[in-house]
Specification:
alpha/beta, single chain, 10 helices, 300 residues
């Protein structure tokens, strides 16, 4: 299946402490023209402001891509948290559990979940601080557990990090947990693929839909097409990548920060990838995996 969207919004998310974050960037692409950054408030975006936009101010018929894990590994062990009696049975219950435990954490934070005496045992918190259940008993790697979507990313020569890993510059565990609080609070307002069916454009919010994205996948695909670098240091680098995706260039010059370049490039990539039927029907995505682990849009 494919479906036409009128807007393509990419969100580079952050799980860092505090209210406002330079690591959050939003960029939007229309059906034609270059992607454009959404100007942040003074001091940077807050997670609650992004939630408010997605819930209340999203343009009709928008495909939203958010750079975070929308769930945790389940398929490898038949549970998110094997051995814990509160382990949820599917992703939406996982979102609810995290939001419940973190109800008193401001700014959509998730520190209470990571401090929870049972939950913390499933995460790597530091170089020498691994929870008892960070690895499965028969694990052959020390990298932690992976979802089927992340295994698919690895087949595409990307290097995703386990959502149970909270260590290192490439970790997305904290972003994912804070993002799951946002997803729980968006329930009833914005459907999430593949847990929810792709809405008809005439439905509430004009058929808008949220998907998980991986900005590393977008940059790798652009680099493969252009022969250029995946690390975009300047707007010139960005425009080479945009051209490879069939997008007009942005009219800016000089250096560009990682978060802005990721959002701009991924908005253009989302516009292109949304037309590709294969992205919506990955071969290893089953109904059970959709309901428990979700999927990364674009991973085949």
């Amino acid at each position: 299946m494919t479906r036409e969207f009128d807007h393509f919004l990419a969100v580079d998310w952050s799980g860092a402490k505090g209210e406002r974050h330079s690591g959050i960037a939003l960029a939007i692409a229309e059906p034609d023209g270059p992607p454009v950054l959404v100007e942040p408030p003074s001091g940077g975006w807050s997670r609650t402001e992004v939630l408010s936009i997605l819930r209340d101010d999203l343009p009709a018929n928008t495909l939203v891509g958010v750079d975070l894990g929308i769930s945790l590994p389940f398929n490898d062990a038949g549970a998110f948290f094997p051995g814990w009696d509160r382990s949820p049975t599917h992703a939406k219950k996982l979102w609810a559990l995290i939001d419940e435990i973190c109800a008193d954490d401001p700014h959509l934070g998730a520190h209470s979940f990571l401090d929870h005496p049972q939950a913390r045992e499933y995460f790597r918190h530091g170089k020498d601080d691994e929870g008892e259940h960070f690895h499965l008993p028969d694990a052959i790697t020390r990298e932690g557990r992976f979802r089927e979507a992340e295994i698919a990313q690895r087949r595409m020569k990307c290097r995703p990090v386990s959502n149970f890993n909270l260590v290192g510059a490439a970790q997305v565990g904290k972003s994912s947990l804070t993002g799951m609080r946002m997803l729980h609070q968006l329930r009833g307002h914005l459907p999430v693929w593949p847990m929810d069916p792709v809405p008809d454009r005439m439905m509430t919010k004009g058929g808008s839909l949220l998907v998980e994205i991986y900005t590393g996948l977008a940059s790798k695909e652009a680099a493969t097409l252009s022969g250029a670098r995946t690390k975009l240091l300047t707007y010139g680098d960005l425009n080479v990548a945009l051209e490879a995706l069939g997008s007009p260039p942005v009219r800016q010059y000089g250096e560009v920060d990682d978060h802005s370049s990721d959002a701009l490039l991924t908005a253009a990539w989302l516009r292109k990838a949304a037309k590709d039927k294969r992205r919506w029907e990955p071969r290893f995505l089953t109904a059970e995996i959709a309901w428990t682990e979700g999927w990364t849009f674009g991973a085949l």
